Structure formats: structure tokens, C-alpha cells
Amino acid sequence: MLPYPAVLTLLGIGQLISWSAFYYSFSSFVLPMQAALGWDRTVLMGAFSLGLAVWSLTTYAVGAAIDRGHGRWLMTGGSLVGGLGIMLWAQVTQPWMMYAAWAMIGAAMAMTLYEPAFTILTRRYPDRYRQGITALTLVGGFASTVGFPVAAGLLAVTDWRSALMTIGGVLILFVAPAHFLALRGGGEMVLPVSAGSADGPPPERSVALVAAAGTPAFWLLMTTFAFYSFAAAALWAHVMPAFAAKGLSTAQALSVLVWVGPAQVAGRIAFIAFGKGANPRVLGIFVLSGLPVAFALFAMTSHMAGLIAFAVLFGAANGLVSIVRGSLLPEYFGRAHLGRIGGAMSTVALFARAIAPLSVAWVLALTMGYDAVMLGLAALGVLAVASFAMARPPHHAP
Questions:
Q1: d(CA 381, CA 394)
Q2: CA torsion, ordered 369, 55, 22, 11, to nearest 10 deg
Q3: Could you give the C-alpha distances from 30 to 45, 236, 257, in angstroms and in order?
Q4: What span, in angstroms and rounded, lies between the C-alpha atoms of 313 and 259?
Q5: What's the rounded Cα separation, in Å, for the pair 217 and 331?
Q6: Distance CA 29, CA 47 (A)
Q7: How many C-beta atoms lie closer than 10 Å to residue 80's C-beta?
């Protein structure tokens, strides 16, 4: 078993590359594929939505498998499946091929992106999982900063098919071995403590999925992250076309988007320095409020200064949401059944994320512009804040 810092380093590299490849780079390929293949935007967004839907549908099974101790094979296999899916994407000539590729990529997302790594760390290192979650999100926070420029750089020197082949090769040759090495030994099984000793700490309060689902907090938090996920996914799928609709060039769009990653990381560093003692509910409300304000800024301005302000605000909020979620669930429901509870709760949020790209494409087909869409997404952000504010910690007897 590798030392804890080495595990975090390898997992962090995997998160950085996986998020860049599976999630953030898609928008960069929309316009080149439209030009090359002549497909309607709804066809392309439908493939991305299918991938996100598969992510949603497989999340619970992935969490259950991690609870049974199979995290190493899941994350390694996910990198291999995702790399092959991207290579298949590079070969598409018909829409069905694009959809098959994104079904594979969606399964890979469920097996690799944040949630599996968070759950494995929580179960393997019960005394240090918060530091691990924070470390992974610090590194992963640069994924958008890396993903968009790398995709643009590849597209500047080669065609979109060769660019995708390169990305797929990196996942297979580098990320899969990193996961295999990082997660050897140790296992993920952490048994709940049934009783405390006279001199030891009190037993942890852990609840099974059925009991968790019987609390209002479970459903309110699920609603919160569903609304948030819908809005964020809609942005990332359409962000490059949205900038083009404002009359910005690719270079200008990238000069805005490069601020998102550093802002995400800055928010997480601020949390490490000042936020650990903060009330998690107050912190969550503050963090979630950043999304509707950022989207409203995007809708109401075309000036670079205003768009950079959008990127910084959205990045800071987006960077802290994963920490809020990753830290809140074990506090509310315990660690023993975290894989199943987190997986079940994520299913709805990921389904909302899945339908977002195609839903927005349909709205745009009705002649509504991107600015109006962004204001609508800002309204969803307000509903997410309200739902989170109503989610009170459940009270379970030990």
C-alpha cells in the first residue's frame, strides 16, 4: 500500500486528466464537428446528454461495488473504458456511433470522477478523508483551465479526430496505470462501530440507505444538487457556442475560461485556511449563492471585465460545492453506507445533469438566445439555495 501522499498525488493527476477529457473538452469539439459532419447541434448535445445519463444510471452500482471493496478495479477499468470510448468518438461517421461512444464515456465518468475517489478515501482513511477530498478537489479544480486550452491547442495543430485519439491514448497509457498503482492494497471495507468503549470515542452514527431516504434532509439535498448540476452542466456543454453568440473569438473565450480553474482552487485554499471551523450549512448557502449571481452576470454583459467576473465567481462557487457535498454527507448520514447513499443521491443530480445539454439545445431551437437561457439557469440556482437552506441535519440515535 502506497503512502497517503503518494495515493493523493496519483489520484489527483487522474482527476485532473479525467475531468478535462470526459467533461470539459466536449464543448470545444461541438463547432468543429458541426462543420465537418453537418450534424444538428441537438444531435451532438444528445450524445453528451446520453453520456451523462449513463453516468447517472450507473452511479449507484459503482457506489455499491466500492462498498464491497472493488474500488481499485472500478477506477482502473473506468479509465480504460473512457479512453476507448473517446477513441471510438474519434472514428464516428454516423450519429449512432457517437451515441455508443458516449455511452461508454458515461460509464467511465461514473467509475472515475470525484465520487468514487471520495468514497474510497472516506472508507480507507476515516481519520483523514476530509484532507484527501480537499486535496483532490484542489488538483481537479484546474481541469477546466487545462481542458479547454489543451483541446484548443490540439485542434490548432491537427483535426478533431486526431485530437480525440491523443486524449484517449493519454487515458489508457497514463491514467489507468496511475489508478491501478494508487489503489493497490488496503481495501475499502470500513465496518461501522457498534459500541464505544468507556475510554474511547462514542460510536459513529451511521444509517442505511432506506433510513437516510426517510429523512427530509436526504430529499432536500438531492433537490439542491439536482438543480445545481443541471445549471452547471448546461453551461459547460454550451459555453463555447455561448461565447461565440456574444461575438467573442475562441481566444477571447479562453481568456475568460482560464480564470475558472484558478478561482476554483483559490476558493478551496480559502476553505482550508479559514473555512474549516465554519458552520457547514451557512457555508453551503454562501457557496451555492455564487451560481445564480454568476449566471446573471454572464447574461447581462458582453464586456471582458464582466465576463471575467462571471468566471471568477462561478469558479469559486463551483470549486467549493464538491467540498460542501463531500463533507456534509458523512456528517449527516455516517460512513458505513456512504457509497450507496451517495450513489443514490447522485442519481437524480446526475440525471438532471444529463438532460441539461439537450434541454438547452431544444430551448435554443425555439429561438430563445443564450442570454435568456442563462437567466433561466440563474433562477434554478436560486431554487437550489432555498432547498439547501431547508435541509436540516437528521437526528439518528447511535
A1: 24
A2: 140
A3: 8, 12, 17
A4: 9
A5: 12
A6: 12
A7: 18
Which of 134, 378, 387, 393 minimizes the C-alpha distance to 285?
Answer: 387
Q: Could you tell me if 319 and 265 are in contact, meaning their C-beta atoms sit under 8 angstroms apart?
A: yes
The set of residues, in sequence order, having a beta carbon less than 8 Å from that of 289 and lying 6+ positions away, is 317, 381, 385
Cell of 237: 456543454
Q: What HEC string does 367-387 produce?
A: CCCHHHHHHHHHHHHHHHHHH
pTM above 0.85, yes or no: no
Q: How big, in percent rounded to 5, are the helix, strand and coil portions of the chain? A: 80, 0, 20
Grid cell 466500492 — which residue?
A: 66
Q: Give me the pLDDT at residue 12, please.
A: 94
Q: What is the rounded distance in angstroms from the CA atom of residue 289 to the CA atom of residue 297?
A: 13
Query: Which DSSP symbol is given to 192?
Result: P
Contacts by residues 124-129 (CB-CB < 8 Å, ≥ 24 positions apart)? 124/186, 124/187, 124/188, 124/190, 125/4, 126/190, 126/335, 128/4, 129/330
pLDDT at 335: 61
H helix or E strand, kind and range, residue 62: helix 41-67
pLDDT band at 201 (very low <50, low <70, confident <90, very high): very low
